[in-house]
Amino acid sequence: MYRVETGKQGGGDSLRRWTPILVLVLLHGAAIGQTIGFYAMAPVLRDKPYIAERTRRIVWMEGKDKWSNEDLRSVLMRDSAGRLREQIDAKAQGADGAGRMATVRVLDPVTMLQTDLDVAAKTYTKFPIPPEVKNYRPSPVLDCTKLVAKQKVRGTMGPLRYEELGTSTMLGVSAIGCRVTRREDAPGKSSVTEIWSSAELGITLSSVTRYEDGREEWDKVLNLRVEEPDAALFQVPADYADALAPPKRANFNPNLDLLAEFGSIEWHDGTATLIAGGSNPMEVVAETVEQCLGVPVSSERPFQMFPGDLLDVTDPKFVAQHPEPDRRVFASKPAKVQVDFATNPDGSATDVEAVLKAVAAQVNTQQPYEFTVEKVMRPKFMMFAIVPTATHDEQGAVIRPVPYMETTVALRAQKAAISDLANQMTPQMSAKTGYKFNCCQVFVTGIPWGVGTIEYGPVEKPAREVLADLMAADGRAQSYMAACEARNREFCFVNVRSVPKPTRRGVCSIPGFDPGK
Q1: Is residue 477 scored above 70 in pLDDT?
Q2: Quick one: which H or E segment has residue 58?
Q3: What is the DSSP string of 238-286?
Q4: Which of 330, 432, 492, 501 could form a disulfide with 484 if both were Cys (CB 3.0 to 4.6 A apart)?
């Protein structure tokens, strides 16, 4: 959806998409694995409250005789009802462009609801905890007594060897120790992990893994208080807004009524019809194909510079207070497409690429831009990308600038979080294009993307190809949306997103945008 609201920076309004239903669907799907991981880290126990300040550190070799480390600080707590809360501290953006926003997650086994707080935006997302979590039981990997007994029965150690370390007192509570030795064939990959956990509280107090090549990973509770946390910490702050709530219309600019956004696919006997429209129809088509057919389609918005191609959709009340022309908000004049295509027995399109090219051909005749369709392939990853190839400059002349996702970026060889690697692209994109980019906010608010660590680089290639590498490595995100606001160099973004389970029957529609709401 779109809404126009007064901006606090850049002297203008901000044009943004809102798709609450799609957001909820994607949130629920992505939450399953993350929530189960959270419960495994701190299983739900009643009448066992605590507050634990934790630090997770990764140490790796960045070059010859050069070691680097990264710390992730968080506070984990549980109240007497069994509610869990974890807050991860923000990390300031460094010279490499990497940074992290503060996040908060609350899991409530009483109401079976999960709440994610976006601290920077002061919004929250609330949805049911997946049923898989309700019946989940943590792995007994730390029950050394049973594991050691099994080893003796088998008469062989295998790739994993468990040793009991006895008991000790840590942070004022009794702790049980276990050593896990892992043998790997690859050089430097074998490791030894020592884990100390509190059986009473059901949490790990210390976990240190040391690899043969010198790398280290450790997760330690630095401060533990066995006391009841403040009940207010498990509630949504009063000044936070629901991220999934559709915005109320405050802008009554008549041009906004022209920007109705819609997308759907209707199946017939052996065929289907795609209908879509809006100010940025290629983005709507990408979302519709993903939602309804389950095919990853990335979209890139063209540079929108010429006033004759655009509609002024600024809130009239804002204009009355701020008449300066450079503080206006614009959107492309809308287009509508309709494509019939053949389907397979399961409802999938026989040729998705042909469908996208047919859509691009229709849009190219209605809007002053030109689009092509690219196919990006990796061994276990594939997506289509809708790429803008022509637009108008500020005087109305046809130009063919390099699409911003084809901007060449260079990343040094390093081991880092996938999201940090993605964040290293955008300063280079900004410097080369003159547009200020941010990457890679997740398309679904509140879901972390790219938390896994990989070894990557050195590379020097287009941003689209780098992002495809990172999405393939992450395994959850399958496409992206890249866009700059019309006539605005200060707000450009690249959002990654996953592809939901397709419908492929009857009528499938995306939420769209009704300017009357």
Answers
A1: yes
A2: strand 50-63
A3: TT-EETTSPPPP----GGGGGG-BEEEEEE-SSEEEEEEEESSHHHHHH
A4: 492
